[in-house]
Amino acid sequence: MTAIEKEENPHFDDFLIEWSTKFHFLVGGYGSGKSYHITLKTILKLLFEK
Ligand SMILES: Nc1ncnc2c1ncn2[C@@H]1O[C@H](COP(=O)(O)OP(=O)(O)OP(=O)(O)O)[C@@H](O)[C@H]1O
Ligand SMILES: [Mg+2]
């Protein structure tokens, strides 16, 4: 099996760890990584929470 490693875009650094608000709105052009980073954020939350 080959491991696939992907990196986050530093532009989303703060967004990935910010959970103080109920809603998150991402504004950006198509293909700018909005869906990618909200998915990554959710996965990270699931990994680090019990
Ligand atoms: N940090 C990253 N590393 C590797 N691939 C990435 C990264 N960010 C985005 N991508 C890839 O770039 C493509 C576009 O990203 P994404 O679909 O998240 O953009 P989007 O802002 O949601 O676009 P749209 O407005 O069209 O919905 C996808 O194939 C995604 O997997
Ligand atoms: Mg999208």
Q: Could you please describe the fold and organization of this structure?
A:
The chain is mainly α and 50 residues long. Helices cover 40% and strands 0% of the residues. It has two helices and no strands. The longest helix has 15 residues. The protein is flat. The model has no long low-confidence stretch (mean pLDDT 92). It binds adenosine-5'-triphosphate and magnesium ion. The site of magnesium ion has 2 residues, from α2.
Oligomer: single chain
What is the tally of beta strands?
0
Give helix % range: 40-55%
Strand content: under 5%
Short structural description:
The chain is an all-alpha fold and 50 residues long.
SSE layout:
Blueprint: H1 13-17, H2 34-48
Bound molecules: adenosine-5'-triphosphate and magnesium ion.
Please tag this protein with its features.
2 helices; binds magnesium ion; 50 residues; flat; mainly alpha; binds adenosine-5'-triphosphate
